[in-house]
Amino acid sequence: MITRNFSKTQRLGEIVAMFPKAADVFMQNHIDFCCGGDRTLEKAVKEKGIGDKEILDKLEALYEEYRSRVSEDTDWRTAKYSDIIDYIVNNHHAFLKKELPATEKLVSKILKVHFIDNGEVLTKVHKLFNKLKAELEMHLIKEEEVFFPMIKEYEKNPSEEILDRIADEIVGTEDEHDEAGNILKELREVTNQYKVPPTGCATFELTYKKLEEIEADTFRHIHLENNIMHERLRREKENR
Question: Rounded distance, CA 109 to CA 63, Å?
Fold first, then answer.
């Protein structure tokens, strides 16, 4: 009997928490594993019209390949909260602080240059991206100035009072994650899966590539918070 590492009844967030590279399979198939991480694999693939066996086979193959190599991946399920936070700030937040302003200039540039032949699509891209940029920039400040210090304080001096405040903050934080995730999904739909039109130039291609990179990094960022850090904090509150 073949032992399977994954099943269709597992939650997406649980799968990616266990095996981070599963995110690659989900992103290739446009399956939301961050904001929609509480859904089962079976439900998620059904929504996309994909067979669960197809995705499970890909996950198993990737997992076996992963196991055959020495891995240096961190298991965030057992890491200190402060280590998770520092990783998020130094990697995901730093990435967005650099890429959002740079990509904003590119989005404006292609709108101006390609307005005649692709104005309808690029106007929507421009509006959506600027909405995303405003949402994320506000979100980063809120996390770094309020939410993350609160979690670090709890790690140093655990108390039910701080945990209650954290639980309240998680609700608002995940609502903001949902909003960013929805904008990213809309951007992907508007751009026809980031397909550059025949009239697109090198800058057009670069802009769409940057948008895809922001999408991928943001989904990993949200997954690490929602499905790992927040989930652990919720369990701590339930067990008190």
Answer: 41
Tokens of 117: 């032949």
Separation CA 20–CA 134 (nearest Å): 28
Domain range summary for the chain, segments of one domain joined by + = 12-68, 81-238
Residue 34 near residue 22 (C-beta atoms within 8 A): no
Q: Where are the beta strands (DSSP E) in 107-160?
A: none
CB atoms within 10 A of CB 192: 10
> Which string of b and e fits 36-64 if b means at least 16 CB within 10 Å?
bbebbbeebbeeeeeebeebbebbeeebe
**70 phi/psi in degrees, rounded to 5:** -75, 125
* pLDDT in single tens digits along all 240 residues of the chain: 345 788 888 888 888 877 777 878 888 888 888 766 688 988 988 888 888 888 888 888 887 776 655 445 678 888 999 999 999 999 999 999 999 999 999 999 999 999 999 999 999 999 999 999 999 999 999 999 999 999 999 999 999 999 999 999 999 999 999 999 999 999 999 999 999 999 888 889 999 999 999 998 999 899 999 999 999 999 998 887
Beta bridge partners of 11: 40
Reduced to 3 states (helix: H, G, I; strand: E, B; else coil), residue 40 is strand
Q: Does pTM surpass 0.70?
A: yes
